[in-house]
Amino acid sequence: MPDSIPPFAPLPTGRFLLRPLRAEDAAELHRLVNDWEVAKTLARVPFPYPRDLADEWIGSTAERLAEGEAYHLAIARSEEEGGALLGCVGLTLDRAARSAELGYWVGRRHWGQGIAPEAAGRLARWALANLAIDRLTASALTDNARSAAVLRRIGFRPVGEGERDFLSRGGAMPVLLFEAGRGDIAPSATAAAPAPAEPPVEGGKPILLVAAVGLIDPDNRVLLARRPEGKPLAGLWEFPGGKVRPGETPERALIRELKEELGIDVTEACLAPFAFASHGYESFHLLMPLFLCRRWQGAVTALEGQALAWVRPQRLADYAMPPADVPLVALLRDFL
Ligand SMILES: Nc1nc2c([nH]c(=O)n2[C@@H]2O[C@H](COP(=O)(O)OP(=O)(O)OP(=O)(O)O)[C@@H](O)[C@H]2O)c(=O)[nH]1
């Protein structure tokens, strides 16, 4: 996806709020992090932690957030509950690698409430759905079983061991390295795997029938929609469309989906069959006819909060799409 810095709005996690750090947080941040039990687990935190470093650090997080380089956020109670600072959670981007490193800490007096997995899990899901990344990385000291358990709970996989310099420990320390991609992080805190529409076939996977469309504007650009946070494969770009319901034709399903998702009216006569995808996902086999459409009524509007992009055929490869779409993109580029 082309570089763009999405505006950041505070993220509710359920019980807490992830919001930018502010100058007034400095005193409490200092109180919570200037604690050996917390500082000893963090690579970039000195111990003792000087009070004025809290002001400096908070100032730098605002700049890096505005640049889209790093998202270091307060884990706080909601404003109605007093807004108390409980800890921090952060992401540092590596644009070239299309990855971001996740880190977090929670003040000792707030341990034991499941704050870290709730906050870090929320930020991980948001990042994969909204930033130009495909992967998250994280590390935990080899002797920090609590932190490794948090990462596993969110969906991170251990990928090896390494060493990192720890300011608080005065040198290099052994760490466990973790990674997570879109398939690893559950779409929401409570979500199970997506339920396929059809019952399993003996010895095989259920077939999921999805109708999709390449909407093409007068400039020959194709509309892609970004799968929003909370859905499987969130953050990938796809052709608008959706599951075909029992008794529906693919054309009727598309007409319904385009009205619901984009607010446009399309007639069957304007849907030209173009190609199809047949792709084995882990728990289902996707069969997806792709139609092309150049005529519709109404203005294309993101009615479900999804990001939309009109993309020139030569630029389609810049957008990360589900694996099933890769052959379709090649065909479409040649055709247009
Ligand atoms: N619409 C669409 N779906 C695609 C594309 N490529 C692809 O693999 N799919 C897959 O096809 C399925 C589409 O389902 P969907 O969008 O209607 O449904 P969903 O799982 O998002 O949930 P929903 O039932 O709440 O709408 C998803 O598993 C999606 O990953 C594509 O280009 N367009």
Automatic annotation (TrEMBL):
Residues in Nudix hydrolase domain copies: 206-334
Gene Ontology molecular functions: acyltransferase activity
Claim: Phosphoprotein is one of the keywords in the record: no
Enzymatic class: hydrolase
Entry keywords, A to Z: Acyltransferase, DNA damage, DNA repair, DNA replication, Hydrolase, Magnesium, Metal-binding, Mutator protein, Transferase
Domain N-acetyltransferase: 16-179
Family statement: Belongs to the Nudix hydrolase family.
Name the record gives this protein: 8-oxo-dGTP diphosphatase
Residue runs in coiled coils: none
InterPro entries reported for this sequence: Acyl_CoA_acyltransferase, GNAT_dom, MutT-like, MutY_C, Nudix_hydrolase, NUDIX_hydrolase-like_dom_sf, NUDIX_hydrolase_CS, NUDIX_hydrolase_dom
